[in-house]
Design a protein that fits this description.
Elongation Factor Tu (Ef-tu), domain 3, OB fold (Dihydrolipoamide Acetyltransferase, E2P), 6-stranded antiparallel β-barrel, 3 helices, signal, coiled coil, RND_pump_MFP, Efflux RND transporter periplasmic adaptor subunit
Length: 353
């Protein structure tokens, strides 16, 4: 009997020294947490616009008979852009010129009458009252002549106002009139981009403006040729949020525009923000606990795993950045976390094995 008990004890001791199949160290991928300086990029698509523009309009109303500049056309100062029907203005000029001719004749006649009266008064063959009347007639003729010249000048200006002209070197970026259209005085006819440079305009989601501001230097590229890079600086951020889209308008002055850059062209802009020192880990480390997100931490000495709650700052492509829960140098399980439980012994394998 004694020998049987000893045999059973030996058997139990042997069995206890051999770990059960479930207690075999689990092969897992482990990454070591480390803090690195993180630069976060924000990329949006915007549109190239003129840094300065103006609305060109006729000072008079009328019917459009000709449009001389299309969208995209580059125009020089005083270049004609469009014309109105000018029949009334041309008739007004003829009438004003006829009135001016008559006023000139009356003025010359009044001068001759006054000179004749002066001669007669000197010889005693007329009265001073008659001479003064001739002088008054001359003053009246001078007034009529001045008025006729002013009427002619107004008629000439009215005719000139039927032609819409560029005020400086510019580019037509929008046209709001067509031949045959009736427009009113000061009604916008064309929008002109002045040759004062380009700016890129972006609709920025409000959430991107929360926190530390990105660097004002913006890297720009053309959508049609992404390899074409150029630079810009943020010049204006609207204080108002668009209630429909929840975005804020940001304007970026283009510093070194590439050749051929055109108004209305889509561009991509990238801003960089320094996020400071952060711990970034593969997104596969994230598990869940009753308290929220968690990761599995491996003790270097015992190689036992334990679940630790973490606070996530943000996600990026393939990575997750943590605010708390993981310290510099911690071993974190990157894969096979679904097979773990607290106290499970693991062994480290190389990533990809």
């Amino acid at each position: 009997m004694r020998s049987i008990v000893i045999a059973w004890a030996a058997t139990i001791a042997v069995l206890g020294s051999v770990p059960a199949q479930g207690e075999q160290p689990l092969a897992v991928e482990i990454v070591e947490a480390s803090q690195t300086l993180e630069l976060r990029n924000f990329t949006l698509t915007g549109e190239i616009r003129a840094r300065e523009s103006l609305m060109a309009s006729f000072p008079v109303g009328g019917r459009v008979i000709e449009v001389l500049a299309e969208v995209g056309a580059k125009v020089r100062p005083d270049a004609p852009l469009a014309r109105l029907d000018s029949i009334q203005q041309e008739l007004a000029i003829r009438t004003a010129e006829a009135g001016l001719t008559t006023a000139h004749a009356d003025h010359r006649q009044a001068i001759e009458d006054l000179e004749r009266s002066n001669t007669l008064l000197a010889s005693g063959t007329t009265t001073r009252a008659e001479r003064d009347a001739r002088e008054d007639a001359l003053r009246a003729a001078e007034g009529v002549l001045d008025q006729a010249e002013a009427d002619r000048d107004r008629a000439i200006k009215a005719l000139a106002d039927t032609v819409l002209r560029a005020t400086s070197d510019s580019t037509v970026i929008k046209r709001m009139i067509e031949p045959g259209q009736i427009i009113g005085a000061a009604q916008p006819a064309m929008e002109l981009a002045l040759d004062s440079g380009f700016e890129a305009v972006f609709d920025v989601p409000e959430v991107m403006l929360i926190g530390k501001a990105p660097d004002p230097g913006i890297l720009l590229s053309r959508l049609s040729s992404p390899e074409t890079k150029f630079h810009g600086n943020v010049t204006e951020i609207s204080p108002l949020v668009d209630p429909a889209s929840g975005t804020v308008t940001a304007k970026v002055a283009v510093l070194d525009p590439p050749e051929g850059l055109a108004f209305g062209e889509p561009v991509r802009g990238t801003a960089t923000r320094d996020e400071g020192m952060q711990i970034g880990l593969p997104y596969t480390v994230v598990s869940a606990s009753a308290q929220g997100p968690a990761v599995w931490i491996v003790d270097r000495e015992t190689m036992k795993a334990s679940l630790r709650p973490v606070t996530i700052d943000r996600y990026s492509t393939g990575k997750v950045y943590l605010d708390s829960g993981v310290a510099e140098g911690d071993w974190v399980v990157a894969r096979s976390a679904q097979l773990l439980y607290p106290g499970r012994v693991v062994r480290r394998v190389e990533v990809g094995q």
